[in-house]
């Protein structure tokens, strides 16, 4: 019940494209499942050889997981829905690998300021082991709101100013006098 209430505040008709959110969520969960699968399980079922099954199995589950993430992003793009920043941080945007700390990615804190003297310059660097690309996030800075929300706030403050100013009232008066005459 609480969920429905929360969604209703966003829009009058509840959540649009609910089935697409469901599908994206399902794909993400499937990708997490495949990424967390022990490599031996798939290797045993897929091949009987003993020498190479480990790497083959690993590649198979990794590729499946990547394929799921790729589909999820395709679905989101097609429907123009936005995934949460927290979710996007768990995906490598260069190769669609699900980033699991220690398994598919390495996280370090970097500080490029002179001698590391500026504590607010700390950057969390997440490097993907599959493709070697890294994403950097500021550690201490608060996240900026997205542009559409910032613009909305600006517009609202402008609207308040104009409605309070006497210019609008005058314009209305002149209009009404014109109608009368
Ligand atoms: Zn990657």
TrEMBL record:
Keyword annotations: Metal-binding, tRNA processing, Zinc
Which residue windows are coiled coil? none
- Among the Pfam families in the record, one is Rpr2
For the region Disordered, give the residue spans: 135-181
Q: In terms of domain of life, where is this protein from?
A: Eukaryota
Do the record's keywords include Transmembrane? Answer: no
**From start to end residue, where is composition biased (Basic and acidic residues)?**
150-161
- Which family is this sequence assigned to? Belongs to the eukaryotic/archaeal RNase P protein component 4 family.
Can you name this protein? Rpr2-domain-containing protein
The organism of origin for this protein: Neonectria magnoliae
């Amino acid at each position: 019940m609480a969920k429905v209430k929360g969604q209703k505040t966003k829009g009058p008709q509840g959540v649009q494209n609910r089935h697409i959110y469901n599908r994206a969520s399902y794909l993400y969960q499937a990708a997490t499942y495949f990424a967390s699968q022990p490599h031996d399980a798939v290797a045993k079922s897929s091949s009987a050889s003993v020498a190479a099954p480990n790497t083959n199995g690993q590649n198979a589950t990794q590729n499946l997981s990547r394929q799921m993430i790729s589909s999820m992003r395709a679905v989101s793009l097609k429907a123009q829905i936005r995934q949460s920043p927290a979710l996007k941080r768990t995906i490598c945007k260069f190769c669609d690998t699900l980033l699991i700390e220690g398994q598919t990615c390495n996280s370090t804190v970097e500080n490029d300021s002179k001698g590391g003297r500026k504590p607010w310059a700390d950057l969390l660097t997440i490097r993907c082991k599959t493709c070697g690309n890294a994403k950097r996030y500021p550690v201490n800075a608060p996240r900026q709101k997205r542009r559409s929300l910032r613009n909305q706030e600006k517009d609202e403050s402008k609207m308040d100013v104009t409605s309070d100013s006497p210019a609008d009232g005058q314009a209305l008066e002149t209009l009404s006098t014109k109608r009368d005459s």
